Every structure is written in structure tokens, then in C-alpha cells.
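Comment thread on ticket #2218

A.B. wrote:
> Attaching the input chain for the structure job we discussed in standup.
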Amino acid sequence: MHLKYLSLCLFSLGLTACAQHNLRPSVASTQLDQKVIQGMNAIYEYPSYDYRGHFKVSVDPNQSEKINNVEKTVQLDAAVQKKVDQYLREQKINLNKKQKQALYAAIANEQADSGISGESRSEKVNAVLINLLNDLQFSYDGSVHYRQKMGSLNLTARYEKPTLLVQAKLPMVLDLKDYKFYVNYFGLMPYLVNKDNQNNLAYVDFSKYKNLFTNVDMKKFVEYAKASGAVSYRLAEPQNLQRLSVSDAERKAGIVEKIRLKDTVEALLLQSELYSQVNAKYLQKNVLGFDEEKIAESIATELAASEAKRKVGGAEEQKVSSEDAAAVSQQLYSLINAHFGNALDSEYDEDQSSAAQDGAAEEDASDTAQAEEDASDTAQAEDVAVADAEEVTQDEEVASLTEDQCVELQSQKSSVALGDINYCQIYGIDVLDQSAGNTEKTQIKARQAALKQTFAAYDQNQFVDDEAFKALWIKHKAEIEQALPKQRNPVAIDVGLDEKGRLVNADYDIAYTPAEFNHRFNIKADMQILNYGKATPINQQQLKQAKSVAEASKGSLFENFVKGFSEKLGQGDVSEHPVGAHSDVQDLDSTLALLANQTYDATSAYDKTYKAVFIAKLTAEKPSYIHYYSVQQLQEIAEVYAYWFSEEETYNPQGKALERIETLQKKHHLEQEDQFDNDLGRAVDHIVITTIQGEAGREAWQKLQKQYKQPEQLFSKQYQLEFEKQNGSSDEEKHLLSETADILGKVYVAARKQQLTEKTIQNLKPEHNEFIDYEIFRDVYKQMVTAKK
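C.D. wrote:
> Ran it. Output below, let me know if you need it in another format.
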């Protein structure tokens, strides 16, 4: 469980603290709970840190032996056997005693094989898992680097017996700046890697989905993560929090205070679920910054960019364009690397990789994008038809049962129809199982469902922190107690803090007995946090030498499987493009954004901006429409689209304007959702809304242009402002940032004159490296080029 949460955390870096979310809950003593919460929050207050730990699962040996004794006797239930006998008699099937015994044994074995019998399932787990888990140990270590947007995890599994020792290590690196996941899975699955790449990392490029990460509001995310991690400590009863003595060994490890939380698995899970419930809308929209509409917008944008790339074509041998920010960024990386003699094991490599892949990933994905678009259109049409048919069928033929009605059926004395029994399986309710255990389980499930509905009413798209949630928890305390089972699985968490109050160590002790098994799992784990602010660097040379998963698997047994998997990620036929293989043509996104900015700055009107972007995007995606309709008709269609896809507070025509739009809706048959191209309409709205929200930034940029007339100075100042906005800088760092920005300003001017050489960056020092952000460089470069056109 601990490793599962740790892995998930690494996949979002800032999410690393979620390792303490469900497994590192909270407390109720006013002083102690605050100390633990502050200690856990320390991992957000430093730019980096290392972590390491162990994880062990064992099974109660006494219960294992008991199950082994039962394993030999698999028998058919007596009542079932009686029914079989009766059936045989009424059907006049005569079997002798030996034949009947064989039949009963076959039925019993079939039940065991299909897992119907609870005892047989325990026996299988006993045979497969218990022996394995008791001799298997996990350890892990890694580091998190917030500023570099990178994290590493090295997972090691060790299986040891008196005559057998097997150990496998799985190194992993997540890069959220370059949008790559690196892994060396040779130790785990040797047959997936070819001979030449057994010692190298392989990577999966997920830049195709980078919008899912760039939309995240990191400040709000950290705020949410802190509160989420604090919930269980905030809710714990005073008697469940204790101050423990610190041993000599712990003091040597830097621990000065130790606090224990005692709770249950069931309570922690319910706390987590309800806290997520009251913040669901806020998390999705305000923190993660995406919803169904934005996902559709992302897909539409990506397809448009791929189409633009396809039309441009490839000129792989052409000179690096002075107007191509990605190409200049890559050239800058090469010069910096040469300037330092390849001696810096730093973020140059990751940023160079980002520069090389930004264009390549989109170009590589273009072939599959068109096929996905066609398949998606067909699949969506089929799904809509099926859904409509199912809806009609249900409305006309099925009187759907609620979960409460299914619970009531369990106590119904009269016969329950088979259809109702089957339908109640949707809720996981076995109507015919009226055992005490199942009855309690069903009741608990129903009460928890009701409780979630109650807490869902508090989900108002506003942030509910741990203190506010505690008030809700106390308010519904009686209902919560009824929603928890009588028999619960205990959890003990010991947290060690250093003299600065920072989290240093966490030990977990969980005794868990799943309801479907007859034995107990003992889970023990520990985790240490160390080197705050001075985490172990990630080996950039290894990342530079990494090959794509497809290349690393070429010639292995699973080459075709990996190729198919890569194609699903839009990376089929991945190829590395050399420096200089870039186009002067901006992608469609940039062009439409520029059009929207110019139109809105001139008109300050949503509808006029929408219509301008709409026509341009429609032309790019569906040129046949442009041929078919007149200009007047296209304007009318755009006017209706602007009204349909806008929010009321953004664009709300009244009076004659509204009457005109309603007339146009009837004229063009644009009156129902199915009659619109929703992806197109929402994508245009997203571009326009982004433009409106960025108006203040554009005004600041225009002011900066008037203040700084020289391109070198303008680039330097804008880069410095953008870097501070995204990364922040202390007073001590400002002079280094300013020096770095000045050098990059010279780089811009030299690149525009086709004179960028190593001499341009001769004043660059190793301490400047931390302030070179290639993504910001590319953005400012594009901004400058656009301003000069």
C-alpha cells in the first residue's frame, strides 16, 4: 500500500507527499497534531529532498497452517448436494454411489476453481501469495527536485530462501519538464530488452498529454495536498495520539521528537473519501484545471497542430531558422554543453531533450492522430446510438431499483424476482445472502453511500481545508460511526521529527484482515526523508543516453507488443530529428492565439474574437465547408457558435441581438447539441477565454516594449520577469538571474542575426546554470519574434 502511494506521488512530483495521505493520517491533540502537520509540510518548503525506505508484507503463520489443514477437504455444500440428489431423482437419472461422489467432487472443484468458495480462495492465496510474501522484501530510494520538475524512484525486490536468492531493481525517473518517464526494466523482465540496451534507461514520451500537467495550478495543488495530508491528524481523537520516547539510535539519526498515531484502516479510508468528496469540483476545475470540455479542447488542438505539421513537410537538412524558438533553444543547449566541456551533470540534458522532442513528438504523432480522429468520430457516433437505444430501453422496459431498495429486498420474506437479484449485483448486493456478515457489510455500504451523498452537498467548488472539514466531520459524527464496521483493522504510524520540526522518519504498522480471506496480513513499512534542499542529483548522462521503449525492445520477444503500445501513445515510428530539422511555420495553436489576441485587443468583444478564430480554425480543419458556404453564411454560423459555447457571464446577447441569433439557429439547424461540432466550438471558446484572461499580461508586455527599445534589453527583462513568476528567486539569487538573463538577451540578438556561437555565451558561469529555463527561453523568444514581425 505504501509503495503504491509513493509511486503515484512520483508521477506528479508535487504529489510526493500523498504518500502520507492515506497512510500518514492526522491527530487531535492541539499541540502534537500541529507538530506532525508542520513536519510533513516541510517537504513542500524545500526545493529538493531524498527519501528511502523498506516495505514488508507477511501473513500470520498460525492462520496459514489452519488453512493448509482445510486445503485437503474440498466438499460440496450439504444443501446443494441434497438439491442435486432431488434433481437426479425427479429426472430419473440413476447413478450409483461412486458416480454420485464423482459428480459432487466435480461440482465442488468447479466452485473452487472459479473462486465461488471463500475457503478455496483463501487456500489459493495461501498457496500462491503467502509463501511468496513471507520471503519477499521491498526497498526503495529516490529524490524529488521541484525546481527541475524531476523525481526518481529506485525500487528493489528481494526474494531469499536458504538455497535461493533473487533480487531485481527497477530504476525510474519522471521528468515533468521534458514529459518523459524513464525506466530500466531489464532486471524485472529481461526478455523485453535487447542486448545492447540492458544497462540503459528506456523512456516513454508523454508530451502528447502535457496539457494535463501544464493546466495544474501548483500553488493551489500544494495547498490542497497539505490540507489533505493533515486531515487524519486533525480528526484523530486525543487518546489516539501519543508522544514516544526517542532511542539513542534515533537521536543519532537526527530525531528529537517522536509521535504516534493510532487509528484504523477503515476510518482513514473513509476520511480520505469524504474529504475528496467535498473538494471534488474544486480539485478538478480549480486545481487540476481540466474537465471534459478541456480534454476535448486538448484533443482538438493536438489534431490541428499535427495537421499543420503534416502540411509543412520535412526539410531535414535546412539551416537552423532564426525564427524557430525550439531550434535556437536546441542550438543554445549544444553551445552551453560545449562551453562547459560536457562536465556539468545538470539540467542542460533535460532541457535539450525537451527542445528536441517538442517538435518531434508532435510530428511523430501526426500520422496516428488522423487515424485516431477518424476512428474517434466513428466510435463516438456508435456510442451515441447505443446509448440512445439503451436509454429508451431502460425508460420503457426497466423499473430501475435504487441501492436502498436492494437492501430492503434482503429482508423481504416473499420471493424476489431473478431480474431484481441480478440488477442488485450492480451495487454489489447479494440479495440472497442473508448471513450476519453480509448483512452488516450491506448495511455499512448503504450507510457510507448515504454519507457520501450528504457530504456531496458540501461540494460547492470552493476549497474545504482540514479545519473546515473537521467541523463537518464533528457535525456528522454519529452518522460516521454507524458507517464504520464494528471489526476494524488497526494502524499505527510513528513520525520522527528533527530539531527544525521537519519530518525525518515515518514507521507504519498495519494489521489487515480482508473480509474475503481467513488470515491476517501484517504490513510494516518505513520511510526516511533526508538531505532537505540538497537532494542527490539525477544522472543527466543516463537520461541523455536513454532510448525509446521501442528502440530498447527492438529485437526482443516483445518488440511487436511494445510497438503497438507506443502507437497508442502517438509515438509510432519514433525517430530522432537532427538539429536544424525545424520549420519556420508556427503551429496552429500559436497562430490562432495571436489572432485572438489581436482581435480582442482591438475590439474587446468576445463574439467578434470568437468569429475571427472560428473561421480560421474551420478553414484549417474543414476546408470543404469554406468552399460550400458563402461568407455571409459562415459569419452567421460563427455567430451562433459563439452564443452556444460561451458562458452567460462572458457573452449574453439580449433583445434584438438574441432574436437574431435564435432566427439563425433555426435557419442553420443549430438548435440541439448533436447538431454542433462540440470539439471545434469548445476549442475556439478555450482560445478566446485564454486571450481574455491574458489581457493584463499583454498590456504589461506592451508597456515593457515601450520602456526597452533595444531587443537585447527587452529579452533580458522579459525573461527575468517570467522566470521569477514561475520559479521565484531570493534576494541573493536576483543578481545571478539578472546576469543570466543578460547573456540570454545577447543569445537572442545573435541568433536573429544568424551569428550565435560559443563566443556569445563566453561569460556564462556554472552558477548561472540553475537560472537557465529552456521552456521560458523558447516562450520569450517566440514573443520577441512575434513582436518584431
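A.B. wrote:
> Thanks. Noting for the ticket: The CA atoms of residues 403 and 427 lie 6 Å apart.
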